[in-house]
Amino acid sequence: MVQTVSATPTSRAVATWLLLLYLMVFAMVVVGGATRLTGSGLSMVQWHPLMGALPPLSESDWLETFQKYQASPQYKLVNHWMLLSDFKRIFLWEYAHRLLGRLIGVVFLVPWLFFLARRSLDRPLAWKTFVAFLLGGAQGLLGWFMVKSGLVDNPEVSHYRLAAHLALALLVGHYLLWLFLDVRTPPAKRSPSRPRGISTAPTWSFIALLALQIVFGALMAGKHAGLVAATFPDMNGEWIPSTLFSIEPWWRDLVENPMSIHFLHRLFGVTALLSASGLAWWVHRRGPTRPERSLAWLLAGLTLLQFALGALVVIWSVPLHAAIAHQGCAFIILSVAVTLAHAQRPPASGC
User: Fold this and answer.
1) Mind listing the pLDDT tens digit for each residue in 47-93?
2) Backbone torsion region of residue 216, taken as left when φ is above 0, otherwise alpha when ψ lies between -120 and 50, otherwise beta
3) 93 and 201 co-located in one domain
4) pLDDT for residue 350
5) Quick check: 175 and 132 in contact, CB under 8 A?
6) Domain identity same for 234 and 324
7) Domain of 184, in residue numbers
8) Cα–Cα nearest to 265, from 214, 230, 300
9) b (16+ CB within 10 A) / e for 303-328
């Protein structure tokens, strides 16, 4: 017989805390996308992880900050036309991105210490949340490692580091989501009507494909590959670009040639759309609970929306709002897929 576990005020508080952290990571990804798209990521040339939480407050502070930026490669080679008013706009995007990262650290650490002191976290959850803290700290370090690559000589961040930065953000956010789902619906509360033996491999395969697609989206952003072909569904009149494999060796071409990156991003997008549709059909036929079926069809619908957004981003030459929506939608689709995978876990046996 399956035990019934009622939610306690403490478990609700922990679940709310984890959900808040997940939503803050989502906001961080969206703001990070806007920071990248506006070319703001290199506007802050110094990194003070604990100090420097306040922006420049006086005109003299702004001038001093602007002078530091004027010594950077991005200003000298790209933005030498900027006035102080122009600099303020890009600075504030990057400042908001870093401030949100600090806030996530505070919102994690203070409640975590409180929950530990109150013994509201059992030992496994305490360690799992500590791992989330370590991943978040690694994300901050990786963010500065990425920015640093654009502060010396070439005013462009490494697109490899950009992709790694986004991938780690996805990992942190969805690890927190998984912990939230575990606290909200522990194994003993899962529906006993769900039979064992139904494979979750199709859902996890889709998650892997989607993660690969999002990473190639980051490579697209890093190499400005969205601008190399402004037509859809063809690419500048070609279905298979003639400039594919123009870089040797071939494997470097796949991740360094903007046209190849763009082509693969489209190819993975079509594959993801077909896979989401197939997964929805499979879950509809095999899924024993209505939530699972609903999540699967939601996943298919969102993937179709994402595919349409991607086409519009390309046709409209990567406008800011559409591109931000495209990145945010990718995060949401991954969240729905992870929630579906969690719902498909079998209930715990017990008396």
Assistant:
1) 766 555 678 888 999 999 999 999 888 999 888 899 999 999 999 99
2) alpha
3) no
4) 42
5) yes
6) yes
7) 1-189
8) 214
9) beebbebbbebbeeebeeebbbbbbb
Q: DSSP letter string over 101-112?
A: HHHHHHHHHHHH
d(CA 88, CA 43): 9
- Residues pairing with 235 in the sheet: 238
Q: What is d(CA 91, CA 55) in angstroms, rounded to the nearest whole number?
A: 9
For residue 338, give both structure tokens. Answer: 């992870």
Helix (H) / strand (E) element for 113: namely: helix 84-117
When divided into structural domains, the chain yields a total of 2
Whose CA is closest to 170, among 302, 278, 328? 328
CA-nearest of 47, 44, 42 to 77 is 42
Q: Is the peptide bond before 291 cis (omega within 30 degrees of 0)?
A: no
Angstrom distance (rounded) from CA 195 to CA 154: 57
**Which residues have CB under 8 Å from 133's CB, separation 6+?**
108, 109, 112
Produce one character per residue of 275-299: b if its CB has 16 or more CB atoms within 10 Å, e if not. bbbebbeebeeebeeeebbebbbbb
Together in a domain, 174 and 281? no
DSSP collapsed to 3 states, 147-208: HHCCCCCCCCCCHHHHHHHHHHHHHHHHHHHHHHHHHHCCHHHCCCCCCCCCCCHHHHHHHH
